[in-house]
Write a structure and sequence with these properties.
Number of helices: 12
Radius of gyration: 21 Å
Strand content: 5-15%
Largest sheet: 7 strands, parallel
CATH superfamily of the largest domain: NAD(P)-binding Rossmann-like Domain
Number of domains: 2
CATH architecture of the largest domain: 3-Layer(aba) Sandwich
Strand order of the largest sheet: 8-7-6-9-10-11-12
Number of strands: 12
């Protein structure tokens, strides 16, 4: 089956070609993102493979179907960028990779917490410049503090267990109860209690209409003064403007982001020779107590291998007319 990959990088080609050693699929790798301007490149393909910042809205889905595309294969867990109603209307199946490596993102999340708390990123830059002063690098013991975890799926539950192993009190909020988290010694509370009692708030929920801007000005006002806020899920679960306002007042004391609300125009590309015109993002970078990275939480060898293997298996199941283990559909 011919599969057109959009928004592909060198590492995508390496891992997908490595997983396609039997040559069952014709893989065509394109650098541009999928959009109305590039959907014409899908002529002759039965499947497209897209990533988190590709545009797969109703009009793009309609054009894909018109070009003969029958399958949208997401090489990620999230599917908020796909119009599932349009896919169902046009008879286009959607599959994803639900669990490529929850450890990768969970470990990265805790890494952000540790780096922010102990100012490791700032200390590294200082030492390289010959500055060995410790002024401004004071942190706190995480043991004995309280972390609030919003979303206790596979990634969130691993963060819970890691922080419990660090002797932290862990509060959780999620419509679905994860018994493993309770067994680890964490407890579910209402979200207002989580906000009020947590020294660190970390987001691990999918982006849905219900979670869009779940962290807004009202939510931040309920948090402790100087709270650490971490987001490795999806950018739009936080209201960036509200976060910036709270950073100015010190209500948010430390900010760790691996995702950004408008990241599709920035992340995964080299803009170092350009003027970045996103004033909101540039304002985030001015805060010395903010650590921003470019959606690399998933980026491990293990995760890339799992993504390639699972995605190609999803495509093979579709081609063979088998039941789709990882299908995303309207509920």
């Amino acid at each position: 089956m011919k599969v057109v990959f959009f928004n592909s990088k060198e590492y995508d080609r390496e891992y997908f070609n490595g997983a396609n050693t039997d040559g069952l699929h014709e893989l065509v790798f394109l650098e541009p993102k999928l959009s109305l301007d590039t959907v014409c490149l899908t002529q002759g393909a039965m499947a497209v493979c897209v990533f988190v910042n590709d545009t797969v809205d109703a009009e793009v889905v309609s054009r894909l179907a018109g070009n003969g595309v029958k399958l949208i294969a997401l090489r990620c867990a999230g599917f908020n960028n796909v119009d599932l109603n349009a896919a169902a209307e046009h008879g286009v199946k959607v599959v994803r990779v639900p669990a490529y490596s929850p450890y990768a993102v969970a470990e990265y999340t805790v890494g952000l917490m540790l780096a922010l708390n102990r100012k490791i990123h700032r200390a590294y830059c200082r030492v390289r410049e010959g500055n060995f002063s410790l002024n401004g690098l004071l942190g706190f013991d995480m043991a004995g503090k309280t972390a609030g975890i919003i979303g206790t799926g596979q990634i969130g539950s691993l963060v819970v267990r890691t922080l419990r192993a660090m002797d932290m009190t862990v509060l959780m909020s999620d419509p679905a109860v994860n018994k493993d988290c309770i067994a680890a010694g964490a407890r579910y509370v209402d979200i207002d209690t989580l906000f009020a009692e947590s020294d660190i708030v970390s987001l691990h929920c999918p982006l849905t209409p219900e979670t869009h801007h779940i962290i807004d000005a009202a939510a931040i006002d309920k948090m402790k003064q100087g709270v650490m806020l971490i987001n490795t899920s999806r950018g739009a679960v936080i209201d960036t403007a509200a976060v910036i306002a709270s950073m100015k007042t010190g209500q948010i004391g430390m900010l760790g982001l691996d995702v950004y609300e408008q990241e599709e125009d920035l992340f995964f590309e080299d803009h170092s020779y350009e003027v970045i015109t996103d004033d909101v993002f540039e304002r985030l970078l001015t805060f010395p107590n903010a650590l921003i990275t470019a959606h690399q939480g998933f980026f491990t060898k293990d995760a890339l291998s799992n993504i390639a293997t699972t995605t190609l298996n999803n495509i093979l199941q579709f081609e063979n007319g088998s039941s789709l283990d990882n299908e995303v559909s309207l509920r």
